[in-house]
Design brief:
This protein is mostly helical and 210 residues long. The chain is 77% helix and 0% strand.
Length: 210
Amino acid sequence: MAKIFQVSARAGMTRVVEPIARSLLRAGVSPNAVTVAGTLGVLVGALGFGARGHLVAGALIVTVFALTDLLDGTMARMSGGSTKFGAFLDSSMDRVADSAVFGAVAFYLAGVGDRAGVAAALICLAAGGLVSYVKARAEGLGMSGNVGIAERTERLLIVGVGGLLTGLGVEPALPIALWLLAAVSLFTVGQRMRYVYRQAQQVDVPGGRG
């Protein structure tokens, strides 16, 4: 099944960021530095603005810095490919950023008394972690888990649009976006587990439970 954010759109964005990536590499900036800077920017947007109710500013800041996930990947490719530590750092910083975003959303919604919205934010946080874990675990067992309709980019776009619209006065938009995101995230977990199951039926893959 196609991803929400189509491959053609990703390719178009890559062409936009390539000149930026090339300029940063010429200036001596490393992909790892961009990864860390992007995470710090997301933390500022989520915790410094979103959690305090400044949803428009928070959503815009998080969106801009979340795009560094595409930028550092492009830089790594241009410089000869991602290192093992670079891949590890990128995945780890993604989890930090995602936790900050959904933690900030849950904090904000708790402050305005939206308990259902808080529940949706917590489901999104847990399901997002599962989406990433299933893929990582599959790859650790020599299989692939890179399928599903909602990867990290899609998840951040959905919650970002919801936060932006709520900040502009469409109050139900954020809770609706969170419940939609919770549904597609859980569906994506199911897609990936089914995909890995089918692979495991075709090859003898040793492994234990953990």
